[in-house]
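Recall the central idea of this unit: under ordinary conditions, the amino acid sequence of a chain determines the structure it adopts. In this exercise we apply that idea directly, starting from the sequence alone.
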Amino acid sequence: MEQRRQIYVSVIGQSAEDARITALGEELGELLATAGCVVVCGGMGGVMSAVARGVARRGGVCLGILPELDRDDADPHLTYSICTGVGHARNLAVAASGDAVIALGGSWGTLSEIALARCAGRPVVLLDSWQVMPREGTPAGVLHASTPAEAVSLALSGS
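Accordingly, the structure predicted from this sequence is:
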């Protein structure tokens, strides 16, 4: 019997706290865990913390790739954490580790991860992220979602 490997989905986004983005992140984490995905994130605050909480709530697996050399500041809801000590350079590992990438909210670090994901050939789903990318004429491999459920569906169909 052939066993299909698990799908990894990287979730990227802003580290700043925002109640609306936090709620979307938690829902996204729950949906990805329910779908059986391994969720990869940067392992710290903001969207990363929200998605880790959602994954934990559903008993899923969330892997945090940390910018630092110790786990003291890592989100406590992570299942596993990888210490890198490379700062923002860890964005490449986060972006490349997913079979697909979902961006939620974000700032410059998120934009760098979107670019790195596309350079690595990963499909990217934008959920309330980088609205400067128009729905019409969006670069190939970048999709827009209106809800966490749509973002998960698009990520899974493209992975």
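The CA atoms of residues 63 and 142 lie 23 Å apart.
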